Amino acid sequence: MDTCLIGYGRVGKVTALVLSRDYNVDVVVFDASGQRVNEARRRGLEARLADVSNPGMTSRIAAECDVVAVALPSRVAERVVQQLIEAEVRAIVDVSYVADPLAFHKPALERGVRVFVDAGLAPGLSNMLAKRARMWLDKASRIVVYVGGISAENDDLFGLVASWSIDDLIEEYTRKAKARIAGEEKLLDPIWDAVRVELPGLGEFDAMPTDGLRTLLRSLQDVPTLIEYTLRYPGHVELLKSLYRLGLLDDKPHVASGCAASPRKMLVRLLEERLPKSGDRVVMYVEAEGEREGYWARTSYVIDATQDDVGVETPVLTYMTGLVHAWVVVRALKGYGHPGVNAPEELAQKLADLEKLLESKGIHVHERRCYEQ
Questions:
Q1: What is the spatial distance between Cα 300 and Cα 298, in angstroms, rounded to a whole number?
Q2: Which DSSP symbol is given to 277?
Q3: Which residues pair with 357 in a beta bridge?
Q4: Which of 22, 211, 283, 343 has the highest CB neighbour count under 10 A?
Q5: Tally of CB atoms within 10 A around 203
Q6: Which residues cross the membrane (predicted)?
């Protein structure tokens, strides 16, 4: 057995489909849900019921697999990746959010394990585009990543589609964002440090600083200003401010009718039930400015795709994340990478190949450049 996938949720389903259909890779699925295991089997995949919170199970998976793709909620992903490293699997490709991916580097290096972190859309593809932009400039003064998974039409209260973990979505709104501004490391608040932006050809958005730069803060240390913003339709931030003031983003349990419940967990449950499950749009705008050949220069990379445009059954955000995840898995299978943590921007030199995959699915990366004396 060469390739295994832990987690057959929203993203994992796309990863497995792309690996098996586009790359002819035999992938074995492990999931804790019998329903999801049966669904994978109906789709022609080998699938096994597995509780990966048990270190013994991750050791068994590591013994059978050369490359393990991880697509789990953030609350369990970090522990599973750590256990896989300790079990000395050859390579791990993680699309899940973990608090500090660089914490894996030393143990992975000691055990000769290649760990590909943040192997998704953003972080992931956004890192590769930021690195490409930096490579084009002789000297970069500023790189900003704008990215959002929103509904195709701003016609409801939130302007969102349930395209990924709602628990992780709310966590993104409450977690401080690491950024660098004029050479100084900053912690920004997603709600209270949000700004309104007009992106050329894309429209007006609320832009919330979020914690997606991650390894870029280390690899692009020569760039004085680095920020990532999550995009939402105008008015979204004001709604979040109201939810915050009401305490609905609070994780502390409150008692009502004799039962204790966290307002945040209740909000997550309601959003899971009420948000539409399809009809989304992905907007990505990566902009860099600085000097090139003695001129002030700016370059930007733009993606604007809807689920209807691409013609897929799953939300386009989920689909694109799974596409990138599967593509990185194939790189790992081909022996790419080094022991320790492999940041997504290290794959920037292979980006043309990923763009071909995206183009074949109807997803286009547009480049814009300009100079001034």
A1: 7
A2: S
A3: none
A4: 343
A5: 14
A6: none
What is the rounded distance in angstroms from the CA atom of residue 16 to the CA atom of residue 7? Answer: 10
pLDDT in tens, 322-369: 999 999 999 999 999 999 999 999 999 999 999 999 999 999 999 999
CA distance 350 to 177: 28
Half-sphere exposure of 129 (CA within 13 A, CB side): 31
**Inter-residue contact 11 to 322 (CB < 8 Å):** yes
Q: In the predicted model, is pLDDT for residue 300 greater than 60?
A: yes
Name the CATH topology of 125-317+352-372.
Dihydrodipicolinate Reductase; domain 2 (3.30.360)
Q: Residue 169's pLDDT is what?
A: 85
Kind of pairing between the strands at 114-116 and 91-94: parallel
CATH 3.40.50.720 positions along the chain are 3-119
Opening angle at CA 269, ends 266 and 273, nearest 5: 140
Residue with tokens 């990966």: 52
Distance CA 276, CA 262 (A): 23
Q: Tell me how many degrees the CA angle 304-308-312 measures, rounded to the nearest 5.
A: 105
Condensed to tens digits (0 to 9), the pLDDT of residues 235-290 reads: 999 999 999 999 988 888 888 777 888 889 999 899 989 888 899 999 999 999 99
| CA 283 – CA 232 distance, rounded (Å) | 10
195 DSSP β-pair partners? 207
For residue 85, the cross-strand partners are none
Closest to 228 in 3D by CA, of 175, 287, 179, 282: 179
CATH T-level assignment (fold) for domain 3-119: Rossmann fold (3.40.50)
Q: b or e along 279-296 (b: 16 or more beta carbons within 10 Å of the residue's beta carbon)?
A: bbbbbbbbbbbbebeeee
Mean pLDDT (the chain, rounded):
94
Inter-residue contact 95 to 325 (CB < 8 Å): yes
CA angle 187, 190, 196 (to 5 degrees): 115
pTM: 0.94
CA distance readout (Å), 218 to 131, 222, 248, 273, 345: 12, 9, 34, 39, 11
33 token code pair: 């849900």
Position 2 pLDDT exceeds 90: no
